[in-house]
Amino acid sequence: MIKNIDHIGIAVKSIHEALPLYTETLKLKLEGIETVESQGVKVAFILAGNTRLELLEALSPDSAVAKFIEKRGEGIHHVALGVEQIEDRIQEIKESGLRMIDETSRKGAHHADVAFIHPKSTSGVLYELCERTELKEEQK
Ligand code: CMX
Question: Fewer Cβ in 10 A, N or C end of the chain?
């Protein structure tokens, strides 16, 4: 069901201020920065071996990431699990009794379809199902 850990999301107050730790101190490669208006975030993807770190900065005080930082401070926000055929995976998870935040997938960062599982049904971890649409195209 799960292919890999696609990325780990890390909530930060400022991507600009957080980046040097990753790109200069840890010498990881910045893949790109993009804004995902629908999720209320700006994200920076950093390559880390065969996975990625995703720095998340809130675009407004009412975004999920701003609320998270206000309540818990900066830190690990979610773990993204790579899947194929995301709508089927969402159905399976719902049938298993877990609570999905998203009943169907929506567009996330980095050419991916995403859907979140509620952390209250997964021992406090916010999991994102993530299907890269560029992979789907390659597989056609
Ligand atoms: N990880 C673990 N627990 C979390 C959490 C997170 N990232 N975010 C919130 N929670 C917990 C809160 O601590 C709170 O727990 P308590 O009731 O024990 O205090 C509970 O979930 C409810 O939190 P809340 O602050 O009242 O916030 P909401 O209910 O309004 O929203 C959530 C929580 C998870 C449903 C919402 O943040 C959400 O829908 N997240 C998914 C979307 C998202 O995070 N998008 C940004 C990332 C974008 C991307 O990667 O592309």
Answer: C
